[in-house]
Automatic annotation (TrEMBL):
Keyword vocabulary terms for this entry: Acyltransferase, Antibiotic resistance, Transferase
Catalyzed reactions: a 2-deoxystreptamine antibiotic + acetyl-CoA = an N(3)-acetyl-2-deoxystreptamine antibiotic + CoA + H(+)
Organism of derivation: Lentzea waywayandensis
Protein name in UniProt: Aminoglycoside N(3)-acetyltransferase
Top-level taxon of origin: Bacteria
GO biological process: response to antibiotic
Family according to the record: Belongs to the antibiotic N-acetyltransferase family.
One MF annotation (Gene Ontology) recorded for this entry: aminoglycoside 3-N-acetyltransferase activity
Length: 241
């Protein structure tokens, strides 16, 4: 990656083996690579915590269900993510920015951080007018550090561009004029290792992936624009098969 680049990083700290300084060392290395004019972006998702524990129940007034729903926390800017140590290191950095979606926020550091995170729709939160559409516009690079394309959140953006795609319904609590309400929003469905690994493997045959081993971690760097254009077409064929 070059100085001034915008990168979206997906990582597994444990894949590197022992790292002196841990996640903070990895983050410092990323920021050094892109320089002061570059930007580091990471998913900071919270959907495993801020979600309806009984999404299929529409019967109001069931005490056990209402109590479980009442225990689900509200999202706030400092809410921790369970997506790994490097993402948590970004959230701990002074001056970082974070988008406001209660389940699938992204965090960013650097020159384009505010632009990337300034808006995110509730519906199709990784689709049009999302941080990922801005990353595409900025011709970002996708960096996989010790993980595969099954962890590549940008592929959800690619699928959202298709007229026919898998769907799901997000449910999360939110404050509206001081009142706690449950919001429902449609989005692309989960892949669950069905197509994303295959798309990544097919992309690798195009000869446009840069690979390197760092520590014990296999790492990949791909340019988002050609990759997402390829992925959308490939996913379209796979989903219509």
């Amino acid at each position: 990656m070059a100085r001034g680049a915008t990168i979206v990083a997906h990582s597994s700290l444990s894949a590197f083996g022992e790292v002196d300084g841990g996640a903070e060392t990895v983050l410092r290395a990323l920021r050094k690579c892109v320089g002061k004019t570059g930007t580091v972006v990471v998913p900071a998702f919270t959907g495993d915590v801020i979600t309806d524990p009984h999404p299929d129940c529409r019967t109001a007034g069931v005490p056990e269900i209402e109590a479980a729903r009442a225990r689900v926390p509200l999202f706030h800017d400092a809410f921790p993510t369970d997506m790994g140590a490097v993402r948590s290191a970004v959230l701990a950095e002074p001056g970082r920015r974070r988008s406001r979606h209660p389940q699938v926020s992204v965090a960013a550091l650097g020159a384009a951080a505010e632009y990337v995170t300034e808006h995110q729709p509730f519906a199709y939160a990784l689709g049009a007018d999302s941080p990922f559409s801005r990353l595409y516009e900025l011709r970002a690079q996708i960096l996989l550090l010790g993980v595969g394309h099954n962890r590549n959140s940008f592929l959800h953006h690619a699928e959202s561009l298709l007229p026919v795609h898998r769907t799901k319904l997000r449910r999360f609590p939110y404050l509206v004029e001081g009142e706690r309400v449950w919001v429902e929003a449609p989005d692309v469905g989960n892949d669950d290792n069905t197509h994303f690994p295959r798309v990544g493997a097919d992309w690798a045959t195009q000869g446009q992936t840069r690979r390197q081993v760092i520590g014990a971690a296999g790492c990949e760097l791909v340019d988002a624009v050609p990759f997402i254009d390829f992925a959308a077409k490939r996913l379209g064929r796979l989903l219509s098969a």
